[in-house]
Structure to design on (128 residues):
């Protein structure tokens, strides 16, 4: 699961670099950077990608402080004597992204938001 999160973070952050080098750009590199910095989701994934690649972020102050895994609600199955045959939906650990301001966000929600944010940017600037 952490590999998937890292892969997504790197892909989302690579779009920033691609957009900055887009040959027919109707926007500047600064516009791309400002957009990413203003997006809660994109800035979180940038931090995750950079910390995965470089271990320590030194070129800017990250807005993300941690990624954690929370136990699934079905982890209580052993207490309730539920057999493995009766798996409940959502019986998987949930990844949480913790921002520097202390806010906690489900990784899957931020992933959807990040994809939406890049789509909106590309539509706004006519990138196909």
């Amino acid at each position: 699961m952490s590999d998937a999160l890292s892969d997504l973070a790197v892909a989302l952050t690579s779009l920033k670099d691609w957009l900055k080098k887009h040959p027919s750009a109707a926007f500047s590199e600064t516009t791309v950077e400002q957009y990413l910095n203003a997006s809660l989701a994109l800035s979180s994934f940038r931090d995750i990608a950079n910390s995965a690649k470089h271990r320590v972020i030194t070129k800017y102050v990250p807005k993300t402080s941690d990624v954690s895994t929370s136990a699934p609600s079905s982890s209580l199955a052993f207490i309730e004597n539920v057999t493995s045959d009766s798996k409940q939906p959502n019986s998987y650990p949930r990844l949480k992204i913790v921002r520097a301001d202390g806010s906690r966000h489900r990784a899957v929600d931020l992933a959807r938001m990040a994809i939406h944010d890049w789509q909106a940017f590309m539509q706004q600037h006519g990138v196909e």
DSSP finds five helices and three strands in the chain. The CA atoms of residues 47 and 62 lie 6 Å apart.
